[in-house]
Amino acid sequence: MKVAVLSPAAWRTPPRMYGPWEQVASNIAEGLIERGIDVTLFATGDSFTKGKLEYICERPYSENTDLDPKVWECLHISHMMEQADKFDLIHNNYDFLPLTYSRLIKTPMVTTIHGFSSPKILPVYKKYNSTGFYVSISNSDRSPELNYIATVYNGIDPSVFTFRSEPEDYLLFFGRIHPEKGTYESIQIARQSGRKLIISGLIQDQDYYNRKVKPYINNEDIVYVGNSGQEDRDKLLGGAYALLHPIGFEEPFGLSVVESMFCGTPVIAYNKGSMPELILHGKTGFLVQNMDEAVEAVNAAQFIDRKYCRDWAASKFTRKKMADKYLAVYKNILR
User: Fold this and answer.
1) Strand pairing partners for 269?
2) Does 196 share its domain with 57?
3) How many domains does the chain have?
4) 217 with 223: CB under 8 angstroms?
5) Is there a single domain that holds both residue 210 and residue 67?
6) DSSP-derived secondary structure for 133-165
7) Do 203 and 97 reside in the same domain of the chain?
8) 273 and 324 assigned to the same domain
9) Residues 6+ apart with CB under 8 A from 99
10) Cα torsion at 229, 269, 265, 179 (round to 10°)?
11) Do 300 and 169 fall into the same domain?
């Protein structure tokens, strides 16, 4: 079986730091390669894969202001589509735009929907509903207006996350610094808990950071360490007493939640979106409704078995499990 995996060109695949879609696309490609599948990864030229790499954009457009994102997005996607007949199947991880090519080629295309940035993109998905093959990354992130062939949870490589049975005493916020991710709420939860908070993530909303986050940073009990790469991510997640995830939106998945549990670190999250599918309440963390409940959960996190957190994550969210489920999807389509 020859499979083309289409990753975005916004960041490297896998990403140096931020880049969740690129990370998942990488894990899909490498997981399939480990299962003996002939994979060609369409990504940026600086990307890494054990399979074949195809690119037209040498470096990510998010790292080069000279590149127009729409121009290179179109060049990147068309570069793959013009080679579609070389493959038995295309796995699209680049949202809705590749769907607009799908009736111009004969190769079937699986589209993993990594969430809906806006209801305004639904018309494209609806147009190709009868001919596309849609995969959701959680049961909670399904549109009632679309048909799905499967739900496949994102999987990660356990070997890059280190289990730590004895954490340090800090709380951690790890993710985009944006109102919907709850950075400000994490600060308030930490302050009310009397614990140090480390913040790591890409500043996606500079005004929000300036108004709601920066005034509290003092490099003592509230510390911002920037946007962390893989090695620092492993250390931060593994060393944390708990990960705070007080999201303000229906999050379709949450890679940092799963990565945290692989390190043995429990997660305290607002009970929204996919969180009940990722977190086993009272066993691998706590699902809460508000700040007061989150503060109570911080105190209770000391009783969470960190080894159980790792075992739970390994039972559901590995790269191997994800690859096996996608292979079943592919075989179903090709039959």
Assistant:
1) 245, 287
2) no
3) 2
4) yes
5) no
6) EEEESSGGG--TTS--SEE----B-GGGS---S
7) no
8) no
9) 92, 109, 111, 124, 125, 127, 128, 132
10) 20
11) yes
Q: What is the dihedral of CA 17, 21, 23, 28, to 10 degrees?
A: -170
Could you tell me the pTM of the whole model?
0.94
Binning pLDDT at 50, 70 and 90, where does residue 57 land?
very high
Rounded distance between C-alpha atoms, residue 285 and residue 278, angstroms: 10
Q: Give strand ranges (E) for the chain.
A: 2-6, 38-42, 52-54, 89-92, 109-113, 133-136, 150-151, 171-174, 197-200, 222-224, 242-245, 267-270, 285-288
- In the block, tokens 């020859």 appear at 2
What's the token pair of residue 40? 């060609």
The CATH number of the domain holding residue 175 is 3.40.50.2000
What is the spatial distance between Cα 80 and Cα 72, in angstroms, rounded to a whole number?
13
Distance CA 245, CA 275 (A): 9
Per residue in 92-142, pLDDT (tens digit) is: 999 999 999 999 999 999 999 999 988 999 999 999 999 999 999 999 999
User: 78: domain range?
Assistant: 2-155+318-334
- The set of residues, in sequence order, having a beta carbon less than 8 Å from that of 302 and lying 6+ positions away, is 241
d(CA 197, CA 165): 20
Q: What is the pLDDT of residue 98?
A: 97
Instruction: Work out the mean pLDDT of the chain and round it to a whole number.
Output: 96
Residues 21, 332: Cα–Cα separation, whole Å: 24
